[in-house]
Amino acid sequence: MTQFTQTPDLAWLHVPVAQVDTNARAAAEARQAQLTKPPGSLGRLEQVAVDFAGWQGRSVPAIDRIGLAVFAADHGVAAQGVSAFPQSVTAQMVANFAAGGAAVAVLARRAGANMTVVNLGTVSATAHVPGVINHDLAAGTADFTEAPAMSQATLAKALAAGAHHVAPNLSLFVGGEMGIANTTSAAAVYAALAGREAATVVGRGTGVNDTGLSAKQTAVERGLTRHAPAWAGQDQANGTQTILRCLGGLEIAALTGAYIAAAQRSVPVVVDGFIASVAALAAVRINPGVADWLVYGHRSAEAGHAQVLADLNAHPLLDLDMRLGEGSGAMMAVPVIQNALALHAEMATFAEAGFA
Ligand SMILES: Cc1cc2ncn([C@H]3O[C@H](COP(=O)(O)O)[C@@H](O)[C@H]3O)c2cc1C
Ligand SMILES: O=C(O)c1cccnc1
User: Fold this and answer.
1) pTM for this one?
2) Is 325 close to ligand 2, i.e. is its CB under 6 Å away?
3) 66-331 has which fold?
4) Spelled out in words, what is the top-level CATH class assigned to the domain 14-61+342-353?
5) Which stretch of DSSP H or E encloses residue 237?
6) Every domain of the chain and the residues it spans
7) Strands in the chain per DSSP E
8) Which protein residues touch ligand 1 with a CB less than 6 Å away?
9) pLDDT per residue over 291-350, tens digit each?
10) Is the reported ipTM for this assembly greater than 0.95?
């Protein structure tokens, strides 16, 4: 098991992403025009098939290997009363992922995805159960209202850990997250990245009451005030890394690293909800080409997700009022993608069906 005992170099973040094959896209568009249906009648499903053609470099793409990595970590900011659940739930859920009882585990089984559960750093040993990969980068993050969430070395390790879990031969990658209080961390990262007011980016997460919501807003404001000087004057890529270091979570940074690595390895990504989309925004700010390799699974009910999606010019496949995380919204979209590719591959053309 990779323990990331050395601090990884961060130059890899800027390696250009893989090229999308525009010829394969054009061939897939031509095929769509010949299938036995009115042009455009399969709506966004047509676009999905064309996108995968470009990603896979063939006019008739197929999904063979689905990789799902669920990254878990504790958050020091949980001490600010920002979640409806105690921090210990993170480690308990790690065991539940490994046992196959979590929502995303059900969806992974149904879609035929290979699920990896990655504990990046929790304060409780409950997360150290069979079937879980433990990287133990740190005992969670520090409370960002009082200190930077993590050191530069831990950030580098978390980004590399995320990349480590994207196999180059995947047809698609889904990243999930688990970390009580991470909607607060994601809101803070988003507010800093996009220059938003705390009040417009915080939502109820696991279902906090008004007191909890107000505690989230205060925590985000305090985090921004305390740490903004650290990224002031930095360029976009360095500023984004500083924002992740000061306000992020180990699992959020891992998602960012995973998305960048996926785009470099020609692996398309299905992005999940609010937290995953904030990680995607960070990835695009660090390496803009990453945007070409992302498809958005769903619109989360978490306040703030709609804004992040708009900033990414993203149009998610589903809108089911889900607000769970774990990668569950992305995994719900995977069967839609599988069906889009099956229609593209298996429908008859007008010529094959003998239309005059
Ligand atoms: C049992 C349980 C299972 C979950 N699975 C994902 N989350 C989700 O909720 C957390 C974020 O919400 P907040 O910021 O309000 O704590 C994350 O861990 C997220 O993935 C869960 C939360 C709970 C309680
Ligand atoms: O959209 C999400 O990612 C989300 C929303 C609420 C709780 N956990 C995750």
Assistant:
1) 0.98
2) yes
3) Rossmann fold (3.40.50)
4) mainly alpha
5) helix 236-247
6) 14-61+342-353, 66-331
7) 66-73, 114-121, 132-134, 172-178, 269-271, 294-296
8) 83-85, 89, 93, 177-184, 205-206, 324-326
9) 999 999 999 999 999 999 999 999 999 999 999 999 999 999 999 999 999 999 999 999
10) yes
